[in-house]
Every structure is written in structure tokens, then in C-alpha cells.
Specification:
Helix content: 25-40%
Bound molecules: zinc ion
Order of helices and strands: HEHHHHHHEHEEEHEHEEEH
Distance between the termini: 13 Å
Oligomer: single chain
Number of strands: 9
Length: 238
């Protein structure tokens, strides 16, 4: 395995066009649970699976329950960037990393200092009125009760892509361009089974595709380098 780390270190050393594409595993090492991992807690407290609650139709039909789940499970409190976020920010500052493309919604890459971050699923740190589009701070949801309302009467919602809403097309095409033109593409902390984001890997045309994930993924055979270790343990060494 150390040989693989050495190879990754060398590819990073030689490149000024690295793109990182990260999944939930990047955030779990900052103590943020993957909301998709259904545990006993969900079953006790919620009558629906997370995917149902975080969907557009559920949000419209049952906003009280949506916000109960949202405040409890998706609002980030006291999380700090970990070594993965910090190292990626350094690599960008050194002119080696072009962008971070993330499926996470916690803003930790920016907190670590990354500038070019594409948040495919939005961010809990941005909120807005669904009727008049007025922006609101995250506290307007996290520190309120029930269904948060704008002065205009509209519902204040997080700028987070719910199921059924699709991805922002501008962000998606930026991500496609970055991946298509990347020299080194590092994919970390995702099992690569959630579409459409997982389909982005297909746009890569280079020969330095790196997959870092604790467990095997269905796409391991397509990668030029596979490292089955915790992301933090890898980024602490490259
Ligand atoms: Zn409004």
C-alpha cells in the first residue's frame, strides 16, 4: 500500500491540473454522519427513510417533518475541516489543484481555505426564501422552530438540492469541463453508486484516475490507482 501512496505523491508532485471529486467520506472524518446511512435512530424517530424526507415532494407536503429532520441531521454544528480539506486547500494554493467538486453540503472545504469549490448538492450555509428569493443566513433555519418564514410569507429553505430537483446545470457543466480536462482526477470518500454525480467519472479522459475509498467500489477496475484506506490517512501522507 505504501507503494500506492508513493505513486499518488509522485503524480501530485508532477501535476498542476489536479481535480478532486469527493463524497460523504470526506465529511465523516470531521464527525459528520452520512445521512444516507440508515441506522436504528432514524427508524425510531422518523417514519420515513432519509431519501424520502429530503425530497421535493415531501418538503412541499410535510414541511414540519422536513425541518425536524433537517435541524437534527443536516445542520452542522461544531464541525471542523479535517486533514483532507486542509491538504486540498494547500494544493490549490500551491497551484496544483484546479478545483474541488463535492457532494457534501457542509461548507468545510471553504472553511479550510479552498476557493474553487463546486457544490453539486448545494450548501446548508446558504438559505433563501422560496417565494421572493431573498437570501437568509443559516441561523434563520437552524435557530428557528417549525417552518421558517420570510417577511413575504414564503418558506425559507436551504440552498440544498433535494431529491427530485436535479442538479444545477451550471455547476454540472463546470464539473464536467474540469473533469474532462483534468490531468489527475482523485475521487475520494464515495462508493460511486449515487447518480447522477457518479456518472461524472465517465468524462475523465486521462490516465491518472485515482480512487481512494475504504471499501471497494464498482468502478475500481477502471481506475489507474486504487487505495483502500481512510481518506485522512492517505492525505496526511501526500
Ligand atoms: Zn420572501
Amino acid at each position: 500500500m505504501d507503494k500506492n501512496i508513493e505513486t499518488l505523491r509522485q503524480w501530485i508532485e508532477e501535476s498542476d491540473n489536479i481535480v478532486f471529486f469527493g463524497g460523504a467520506g470526506v465529511s465523516t472524518e470531521s464527525g459528520i454522519p452520512d445521512f444516507r446511512s440508515v441506522d436504528g435512530l432514524y427508524n425510531q424517530k422518523y417514519r420515513f427513510p432519509p431519501e424520502t424526507i429530503i425530497s421535493h415532494s415531501f418538503f412541499e407536503r410535510n414541511p414540519e417533518e422536513f425541518y425536524r429532520f433537517y435541524r437534527e441531521k443536516l445542520v452542522i454544528r461544531d464541525a471542523r475541516p479535517n486533514v483532507v480539506h486542509r491538504r486540498l486547500a494547500e494544493l490549490e494554493a500551491e497551484g496544483k489543484l484546479r478545483a474541488v467538486i463535492t457532494q457534501n453540503i457542509d461548507g468545510l472545504h471553504q472553511a479550510a481555505g479552498s476557493k474553487n469549490v463546486i457544490e453539486l448538492h448545494g450548501s446548508t450555509l446558504r438559505c433563501y426564501c422560496a417565494r421572493c428569493r431573498r437570501p437568509y443566513p443559516p441561523e434563520s433555519i437552524s435557530e428557528s422552530e417549525g417552518v421558517p418564514r420570510c417577511e413575504c410569507g414564503g418558506v425559507i429553505r436551504p440552498d440544498v438540492g433535494l431529491y427530485e430537483e436535479g442538479l444545477d446545470q451550471g455547476d454540472l457543466s463546470k464539473a464536467v469541463d474540469l473533469i474532462r480536462n483534468a490531468d489527475v482526477l482523485i475521487i475520494g470518500g464515495t462508493s460511486l453508486v449515487v447518480y447522477p454525480a457518479a456518472g461524472l467519472i465517465n468524462y475523465y479522459r486521462g490516465n491518472k484516475l485515482v480512487l481512494v475509498n475504504l471499501s471497494a467500489t464498482p468502478r475500481d477496475s477502471e481506475a489507474d490507482l486504487v487505495i483502500h484506506e481512510k481518506l485522512g490517512a492517505v492525505f496526511a501522507r501526500v
